[in-house]
Amino acid sequence: MSQDFQRHQWTDLFIRRPVLAIVVSLLILLLGLKAVGSLPVNQYPQTQNAVVTITTTYFGADPETIAGFITQPLEGAIAQAQGIDYLSSISISGISTITATLRLNYDANQALTQINTQISSVRNQLPPQAQQPILTVQVGQTTAAMYMGFYSDDIANNSITDYLLRVVKPKLDSINGVQNAEILGGR
Question: How far apart are alpha carbons 53 and 94 in whole angstroms?
């Protein structure tokens, strides 16, 4: 009962003294305007999101073999690295691709070092025919825009790879706006 009485006294104070109510309201308004004016506001706050992609090739292996002997051991090791928000992977014939999305504003170089260390710790568990995993870092909104495949019944695989490395890759790298061209799965 006494709390109810005190509450009524508090509100009655402003009812009995309207000038005080106006002054307190204006004071709150001015302090609010001052606070709003001092808040830092950015339309596009600077954030850094990074993605580390780990690509491993194992020639002639079917997707199930890739998933079981390459993707799963690598995912287990990569998940131990700090700064990873989530992992996604895809295992196709001959290629395992694991994408590690980093937490917002986490240092991409530090994450790359940790991921590389984790991969090195399980490298001996991968099949000996599997190639060394290739790590790439994409910071910001850069994403791979195109994948191209080359195959021939008449030309040997190593000749195709040689042509791609000598002719196609330099031409792709010289195009304005192309950050990086990679040859994956070459023999």
Answer: 16
Closest CA to 70 of 93, 100, 101, 91: 91
Q: Token digits for 150? A: 């080359």
Q: What is the mean pLDDT of residues 9-36?
A: 89
Give CATH superfamily name and number for 50-143.
Answer: Multidrug efflux transporter AcrB pore domain (3.30.70.1430)
Question: Are 120 and 106 contacting, i.e. CB atoms less than 8 angstroms apart?
Answer: no
What token pair was written down for 117?
């260390």
Answering whether pTM is above 0.90, one says: no
Residues 6 or more apart in contact with residue 122 via CB below 8 angstroms: 73, 74, 76, 77
Domain ranges of the chain: 2-38, 50-143, 146-187
**What residues have CB less than 8 Å from 101, skipping those under 6 apart?**
49, 50, 51, 84, 85, 86, 87, 88
Q: Judge whether 178 and 143 are in contact, CB under 8 Å.
A: no
Mean pLDDT confidence for 45-56: 84
Angle at 14 between CA 8 and CA 18, to 5 degrees: 150
**pLDDT of 116 higher than 70:** yes
